[in-house]
Amino acid sequence: MNVEQILKQSLGEGGFTTSDFRDNHRIIVSAERVFEALKSLKNAGSFDLLVDITAVDYLHYPDAKDRYGVVYCLANTQTGERVVVKTFANDPEPKVPSVYGLWRGADWMEREVFDLYGITFVGHPDLRRILMPDGFVGYPLRKDYPLRGYGERHNFQPVVRAEG
What is the CATH number of the domain that holds 140? Predict the structure, then answer.
């Protein structure tokens, strides 16, 4: 059974759209149904490996209807087949459901997207910053974040290595 057939069974005929670009098969699903789609692909399609979760900020794209895209890259380790699942989130509180319950490896990937884009993964067991310091204000990969920051660098304690 191919990816479209699996998703038609779980989401229905109009529950998703597809596109292909440079040998990448992409599935576009609403944020409300993305968990259901990913669960179906894992269980029925044997996409047992979550390769990556990342995000895109579409702030300066004139044709974009949504501010953020959240991208899930999946692989079937038995056949080598890959698929990209994409969903969208918007300000003022961008959020999508966590897939930590499906793949434990999503833990740090979701934390990274949260830390750099400010997208909340609802249901994540420990959603907190992973790359930026705790006191950091803002999300540095958003297109509206200033190139030189907000002047926060002088507030961070320098890291001092022990001699020895």
Answer: 3.30.460.80
